[in-house]
């Protein structure tokens, strides 16, 4: 029986994939499988993965015929996974040796639906530990109780899918798949759904995932139209949260977070191509008009002057003729 399935999408990461695969080898176990999803890479990544299929214990190689993006690649991996537990890793990141065995043992001891972990961010030679914004460690809790408060960073703001491990029952209940086709912010509706609908979770202070920040091919570094998928992602968060039984207390958090992300992108608008910048302003204005207006008003009043003023200015723009 496969105890753990690790889903690893790859796209044009030939420079970094060898490090990722070496770290998987240092985590291999007879009952672990590593599902290597080639999202139709156009560089040397496919050859690296074909070799890994032969040489990496537990490797399962899956290749897309067409590039679908990170969310779709993760879904392909989930559909192929056989493990009792599941984890994610991105194709340009890496792990400490033996990390998955340690994380799995802790999760089995707790018996919860999912766990979240800290991670090490790596920017060039710099290293910094980023912690889950949740104070209690090693204690099983209801994830719904970790969504609030609205005006503070909480576990739903720490959306990295690879910073944790998940029991298969979440997959069976339809909670682990990502929104097909999202090119960025794919973790946001996903983490909100987990926190609203799963029953138990815990936070662990392990530092075994190394997240490579500032990779030139990463969408976070590219100011093209794919970045605007955050609008679709957060629209989904708002729509699903509005249907929740606790919508009145959860929506202020969802709306405030959405506004903060819009403000962040508007504040860095110079990195977008000119036509994308125009579309960002128009789609942001339309998104704010779709939000519950009473909740939006309270959110803007709770923000600092600069962010609130930026958002109010864009909200006054005419709505676009095209959808997000």
Structure described in brief:
This protein is α/β, with parallel strands linked by helices.
Largest sheet: 7 strands, mixed
Give the C-alpha Rg: 20 Å
Per DSSP E runs of 2 or more residues, the count of β-strands stands at 11
Kindly state the mean pLDDT as a whole number? 94
Q: What gap, in angstroms, lies between the N and C termini?
A: 43 Å
Strand order of the largest sheet: 3-2-1-4-9-6-10
Unreliable residue stretches? none
Given the structure, what is the number of helices?
11
Task: Estimate percent helicity.
Answer: 40-55%
What does the model show?
- The protein contains 11 helices and 11 strands.
- The chain has helices spanning 17-25, 45-55, 70-80, 99-110, 168-172, 187-197, 229-242, 247-267, 274-290, 293-302, 305-315; strands at residues 4-10, 32-38, 59-63, 85-88, 94-95, 114-117, 119-123, 126-130, 164-167, 201-204, 209-212.
- Strands 3-2-1-4-9-6-10 form a 7-stranded mixed beta sheet, sandwiched between helices.
- Strand 7 (119-123) and strand 8 form a beta hairpin.
- The longest helix is centred in the last third of the chain and has 21 residues, at 247-267.
């Amino acid at each position: 029986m496969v105890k753990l399935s690790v889903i690893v999408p790859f796209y044009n990461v030939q420079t970094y994939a060898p490090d990722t695969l070496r770290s998987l080898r240092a985590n291999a176990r007879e009952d672990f499988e590593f599902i290597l999803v080639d999202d139709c890479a156009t560089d040397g990544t496919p050859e690296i993965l074909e070799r890994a299929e032969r040489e990496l214990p537990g490797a399962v190689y899956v290749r897309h015929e067409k590039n679908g993006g990170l969310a779709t690649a993760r879904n392909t991996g989930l559909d192929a996974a056989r493990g009792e537990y599941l984890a994610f890793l991105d194709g340009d990141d890496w792990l400490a040796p033996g990390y998955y065995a340690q994380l799995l043992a802790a999760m089995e001891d707790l018996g919860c639906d999912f766990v979240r972990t800290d991670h090490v961010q790596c920017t060039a030679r710099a290293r910094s530990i980023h912690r889950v914004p949740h104070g209690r460690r090693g204690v099983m809790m209801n994830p719904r109780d970790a969504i609030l408060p609205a005006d503070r960073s909480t576990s739903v703001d720490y959306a990295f899918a690879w910073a944790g491990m998940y029991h298969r029952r979440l997959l069976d209940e339809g909670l682990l798949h990502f929104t097909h086709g999202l090119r960025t912010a794919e973790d946001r509706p996903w983490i909100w759904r987990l926190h609203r609908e799963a029953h138990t979770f815990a936070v662990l202070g392990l530092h075994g995932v190394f997240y490579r920040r500032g990779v030139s091919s990463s969408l976070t570094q590219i100011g093209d139209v794919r970045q605007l998928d955050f609008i679709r992602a957060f629209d989904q968060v708002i729509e699903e949260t509005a249907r929740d039984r606790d919508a009145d207390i959860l929506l202020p958090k969802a709306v405030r977070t959405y506004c903060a992300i819009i403000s962040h992108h508007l504040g860095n608008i110079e990195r977008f191509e000119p036509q994308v910048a125009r579309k960002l302003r128009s789609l942001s204005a339309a998104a704010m008009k779709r939000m519950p207006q009473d909740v939006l008003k309270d959110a803007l009043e709770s923000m600092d002057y600069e962010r609130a003023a930026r958002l109010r200015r864009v909200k006054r723009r005419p709505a676009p003729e095209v959808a997000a």
